[in-house]
Structure to design on (98 residues):
């Protein structure tokens, strides 16, 4: 019948939080058990993707502030269309030969 009370109070933040949590899940799966330090998560977000850029960035910062991520930074790359995808993960594996 309409937006939930929480969504109306937060300006739709609920949708972006669910997207951010799914991006966190994708990152966690890609990192696997080796658990390298996640530095940056880049996300392509289209202008027509139905996502508020600043809200998604805020939610990603919240998700990546918690273990197992320990402070990874989101990097949102705006693009045309309705694209919404994880572009790349930057990790620090502790090796000095990079």
């Amino acid at each position: 019948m309409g937006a939930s009370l929480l969504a109306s109070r937060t300006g739709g933040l609920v949708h972006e939080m669910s997207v951010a949590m799914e991006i966190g899940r994708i990152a966690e799966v890609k990192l696997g058990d080796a658990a390298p330090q996640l530095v940056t998560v880049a996300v392509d977000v289209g202008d027509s993707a139905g996502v508020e850029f600043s809200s998604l960035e805020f939610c990603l910062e919240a998700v990546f502030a918690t273990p197992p991520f320990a402070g990874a930074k989101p990097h949102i790359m705006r693009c045309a269309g309705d694209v919404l995808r994880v572009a790349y993960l930057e990790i620090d594996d502790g090796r000095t030969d990079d």
